[in-house]
Each structure stands twice: as C-alpha cells, then as structure tokens.
C-alpha cells in the first residue's frame, strides 16, 4: 500500500476500570489527511470527466485501443444526456476510490497488554505474552516471538518513530 503521509493521530484513553483495560495509544492517519485523499481523487475524477469527450474523440480513430464497448456506452451517454454526465461519473468514481483507499489505511492500537493492527476490516491482535520484540525492518513493523520468528511483518501508514515510541511507552521491548 502507498503511504499518504505518515501522520499519526495520538489518542490515549483510559477505559473504565470495571473492564480492567489499561491505557491505550491509537495511531492512525489523521481524518484531515484522509479527507485530502478523498477530495483529491474526486478532483481527479472530475478532471477526467471534463477531458473524457476529447479523449473519446481521439480514441475513435485508434483501432488498437481496448474497451470499445464501455467507450461506446460513454459516447452514447454523452451525446444523449450531455457531457456533464461524464463529469458526474468521474466525480462518483473519484469519491468511491478515495473512500476505498481511506478505508484501507492502517491503524494500530497499543496497550501494555496487547497490540491490535487494523487494515480495512481485518484485525490482527497479539497479546504481550506472544511478543518478545517489536522492531522495524525495511519499513515494516515486525513483531517477533520467543523463537525469534516473525509473528507479523506489516507495512503501516503511520510514522515509524511514533509506533516505536508508543511501544516503549507501554513497556514493550523494541529495537
């Protein structure tokens, strides 16, 4: 996954003591930066919608180009409804692509007892008893067990220094 700025949002909270949970640090790409991704891809989609009629006109003379069916459909829509439909399609596609990318950005939650890595709808949880070392290797967070085997090797979208600082803050051994 690409890095869209490694800006971390630090949230420490103390959950209620009735559940016995300890202080937790959550690191994730800031919502403002996620919004920039969505807005940026929406603008790109709109721009593609604006230039699409010119591209389709050029593509008519190019027999080697694939996707003739979708191209003909877009031409028909454009001539029937108007070129604004291509701009609307581009905007919707840009918003959907931006939301998809923003939704897949990683988030890490660290406490003294566990670490949880979330990417999209996938969660990976490791207890403190499983992990003997947390480190970075070639831009990947690596958690190792007592046999020095990798439990996980994950490319995160938050700053390496912030992640390592959070691990140390909660008493995890780091390199």
Helix/strand structural class: alpha+beta
Largest sheet: 5 strands, antiparallel
Mean pLDDT: 85
Strand content: 15-25%
Please report the total strand number as a whole number: 8
Query: How many domains comprise the coordinates?
Result: 2
Low-confidence stretches: 1-20
Spatial arrangement of strands, main beta sheet? 1-2-3-4-5
How many whole angstroms does the radius of gyration measure?
23 Å
Topology overview:
Layout (H helix, E strand, L loop, with lengths): L10 E3 L10 E5 L2 H30 L7 H13 L3 H20 L2 E6 L2 E6 L2 E6 L5 E5 L2 E5 L5 E5 L5 H10 L6
Antiparallel strand pairs: 1-2, 2-3, 3-4, 4-5, 6-7, 7-8
Summary keywords:
175 residues, alpha+beta, 5-stranded antiparallel β-sheet, 3-stranded antiparallel β-sheet, 4 helices, 8 strands, 42% helix, elongated, disordered N terminus
Describe the structure.
- InterPro entries: PH_YqeB (IPR057798).
- It contains four helices and eight strands; from the N terminus they run ββαααββββββα.
- It is α+β, with helices and mostly antiparallel strands and 175 residues long.
- It folds into two domains: 12-29 and 106-169, no CATH class; 34-102, no CATH class.
- The strands form two sheets. The protein has a five-stranded antiparallel beta sheet with strand order 1-2-3-4-5, covered by helices on one side. The chain has a three-stranded antiparallel beta sheet with strand order 6-7-8, covered by helices on one side.
- Helix 1 packs antiparallel against helix 3 (84-103).
Quick overview of this protein structure:
The chain is an alpha+beta fold and 175 residues long. The protein is built from four helices and eight strands; from the N terminus they run ββαααββββββα.
